[in-house]
């Protein structure tokens, strides 16, 4: 792949936590080479309050993000995506959306922090853990030598990033 700018779509089911976090992270760390977007197959319609709180505490502006259907992008064709990453957790039988077209894709499953039960502190910790995992994966992704990787090698690297475990994301 050649150098330049890349549009990246993060997909999950509700588009209220993980995909919003990933969009925010890439927006901040994309260094004008990566532009992040997010959507959901069954969007909640609003950002989870813990997501908004976490983003605000980490100097992101939560008002810049919204929960929306993936059809917003696939029907309008206003944005051509180079990469589409699903961040839903298939380990917990969560359905991941499928995006049409020919962008490079990979599954970067992250446990759904909104599904965590327990104390408020435990729930907020789950959101912080999801953010940390996504930030580490996105950091690896944006550091890849895109100019020197062919499409097959790049696909292998994208898949490897999604296979990192929680302990490797630490």
CATH top level assignment: Alpha Beta
Largest sheet: 4 strands, parallel
**Number of H- or I-type helical stretches:** 5
* Number of domains as seen in the coordinates: 1
SSE class:
alpha/beta
Radius of gyration: 15 Å
- Helix share bin: 25-40%
Shape: globular
Kindly estimate the percentage of residues that lie in beta strands according to DSSP: 5-15%
List the secondary-structure elements in sequence, H or E.
EHEHHEEHH
The CATH topology, please?
Answer: Rossmann fold
> What is the terminal separation in angstroms?
29 Å
Contiguous runs where pLDDT drops below 50 for at least 5 residues: none
Mean pLDDT: 89
Protein architecture, described:
By secondary structure, the chain is an alpha/beta fold. The chain has a single domain, classed as Response regulator (Rossmann fold, 3-Layer(aba) Sandwich). It contains five helices and four strands. Strands 2-1-3-4 form a four-stranded parallel sheet. β1 (6-12), α1 (18-29) and β2 (34-40) form a beta-alpha-beta unit. α1 (18-29) crosses α4 (120-142). It is globular. 35% of the residues are buried. The mean pLDDT is 89.
